[in-house]
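Researcher: Next sequence.
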Amino acid sequence: MEYLKPEELLLINQYLDRQGLTFKPLREEMFDHIIDDINGKINQGASFEEAWSNITGEIPEDHFKTMQKEVMETINKKFTLPKGLSYLSLLLILTMVTFKVMHLSLSGILLLITFGTIGASLFFGTLYGLYPFKDKTESILLIGTLVGVEIFLLSFGLQVLHILAPYSILRVVSIILLLIFYPAVTWHLSRSSNNNNQLLAQLHQKYSPVIERYLMALLVIALTLRFISLGFGVTPDVSHILLFLVMAGAGMQFFALNWHGQQGQNHWMQISVIIAFTGFILPAISWMGNPIFSKNLIIILTALFFMLSAGIAYFKSEVQENKLMLNLFITLIGWLYLSWLLIHIGFLGISFSYIFNIPVLVILLAFLIYFIKSPLLKMFLMIVISHYMYEYPIQLGLW
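Model: Next structure:
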């Protein structure tokens, strides 16, 4: 079997560029198919030039564009259900909030249905996303990550309803799965020569705009309710549930965004991402409603997550041209969470009002608006703001 020269492979890629073939999984398949056809003709005695001329001459004009259009229409139709379910879950959250505020029954049932709808959206979106991809390793990693997230959602629903024994078991299982599969995903993508062709990065990239709009809407609702609870002295049960959802969702999205563009990154960045993820997820472990780790360890892990993730967002941000704003951002987050840590462990004998006050909140919201077009910074700031309002007045830890 003949192996094509680099310049011949480049010629095929340039041809596919001219044909407008941009959907990477389909392009990769067509690229391999053309190479096989050329090698077949060369093995029959033709030169590369003769084989190339013969094959391209047999391909109708706009053939690849038509094929790509049909594939994309099929995929988009399949994603209609997951998108619809995600919007339905947002509507259910609003209904649940209304029931809770008006002290109507069934709010707990609505919450479970909401989590079920979110889980179904993730499940069907992932299932349909497997359609154009054939890599078994990718599929296993994706399914393992999905199962971890789904079980985590279920455990949170049971926690809110105070069903302690099943929630405790499911929470531990979900965190073990996530601590296994997220580092595996990160390392797998970092070893790929071009992870833009990988299932996880491709599927997540397609879903990201919907996820980000959903989380932003959820944050607006949560903040509105939190401000009302602070202003009128109302128990912040509902707003705390929603803020928790935003923290968890934006956190998962933040770390999933780190799957994009992994190639070419040094190992220290990958290790930092994995350590930050560990600091994010471990404080959520509890048994029968009680944290497994000590208060100080939870605080240290939480502060580690925030400060390390701020550095990751800083170095991987898409807005590197505005160094002044990025430097102000990293300085504020460093000051905020270092102070939060030192006050909690008793090293600084000052009031929490030093860091929890309206001016700091306004600055954080201003940063969110300023960096709204940067997915990584936006997700990180959504976690920060959700945690800030969850702790205002002071609570314990990220979860």
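Model: The radius of gyration is 24 Å. The longest strand covers residues 286-287.
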